[in-house]
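Example for tutorial group B:
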């Protein structure tokens, strides 16, 4: 797969023939072959022009934008080269079919909860003094309830209560009082752990969106999260499955290895707590390294990087919608 380009500092990004020209303020110009880039994460101020957008569109390069505090702002999503009217109509019809939509949405919830339980079990084996049986049992109860719900709102309620219980495990595993979550607060995040979760979740949502771009599915039509005129949401659905393995495991790694300290976080004008510029670079570097790691894909002996795993998951969703092949969510081998 092609590379991901991260831009943290104020920069100018231009087209130079078929090459990307990157000039960070007061630094030398860098040239990057456009064919080597799959996506760009922009976390600093950037100057771009029409010529660059034409090149990004031609090459199908997705650009994700984050604001001053590292909060996700939006994505430049080039016109889909893999657009299919037939798939779009099938996806829309699938979403409008209450039974089919609920079946797929429940699979996302069940897959996410199963991976939460797997992560808890993994750390329980490594830290035998931590009591987590009550959390795991509650998650299993939620997972058992999901298929029998009558509508998407009830299903979302189960997912929300399961995740709230799951976050209790964070405070049992992490001993540093500075990194306690206490309670999940999103907008704005009110402490360091909430800031970490929100930022890395956003990275996961953006990465999943990039992988959806390489399929025939439309990211605006989702099944668990309600489709909205104001946002894309299919990436939120698929990310539920991967957050325990990619987001939460990375958080524990960063905190337990003391790669981040309280001074790496700062208060925003809205009263929220956010990762500093330097902290976002540390997190993004660790995030990229984890995505480049490989796993043996379930049911095969094939080694895959995480980006390919996510894309494969989206293709499984597509096959369920188009071909009726039953969708079984990814389960990480903890």
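The residue assignment follows.
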């Amino acid at each position: 797969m092609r590379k991901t380009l991260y831009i943290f500092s104020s920069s100018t990004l231009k087209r130079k023939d078929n090459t990307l020209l990157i000039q960070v303020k007061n630094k030398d110009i860098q040239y990057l072959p456009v064919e080597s880039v799959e996506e760009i994460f922009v976390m600093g101020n950037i100057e771009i022009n029409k010529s660059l957008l034409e090149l990004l569109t031609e090459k199908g390069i997705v650009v994700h934008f984050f604001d001053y505090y590292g909060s996700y702002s939006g994505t430049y999503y080039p016109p889909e080269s893999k657009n299919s009217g037939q798939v779009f109509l099938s996806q829309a019809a699938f979403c409008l079919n209450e039974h089919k939509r609920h079946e797929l949405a429940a699979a996302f919830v069940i897959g996410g909860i199963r991976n939460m339980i797997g992560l808890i079990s993994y750390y329980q084996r490594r830290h035998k003094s931590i009591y987590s049986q009550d959390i795991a049992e509650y998650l299993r109860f939620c997972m058992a309830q999901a298929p029998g719900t009558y509508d998407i709102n009830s299903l979302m309620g189960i997912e929300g209560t399961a995740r709230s219980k799951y976050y209790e495990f964070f405070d049992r595993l992490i001993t540093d009082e500075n990194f306690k979550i206490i309670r999940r607060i999103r907008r704005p995040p009110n402490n360091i752990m909430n800031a970490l979760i929100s930022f890395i979740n956003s990275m996961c949502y953006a990465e999943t969106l990039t992988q959806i771009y390489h399929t025939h599915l439309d990211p605006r039509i989702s099944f668990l999260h309600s489709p909205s005129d104001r946002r894309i949401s299919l990436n939120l659905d698929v990310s539920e499955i991967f957050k325990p393995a990619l987001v939460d495991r990375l958080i524990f790694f960063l905190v337990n290895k003391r790669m981040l300290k309280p001074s790496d976080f700062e208060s925003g004008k809205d009263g929220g707590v956010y990762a500093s510029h330097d902290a976002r670079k540390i997190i993004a570097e660790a995030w990229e390294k984890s995505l480049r790691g490989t796993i043996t894909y379930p049911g095969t002996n094939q080694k895959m990087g995480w980006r390919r795993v996510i894309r494969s998951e989206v293709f499984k969703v597509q096959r369920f919608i188009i071909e009726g092949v039953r969708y079984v969510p990814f389960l990480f081998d903890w």
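The chain has a mean pLDDT of 93. Compare this with the pattern of hydrophobic and polar residues in the output above.
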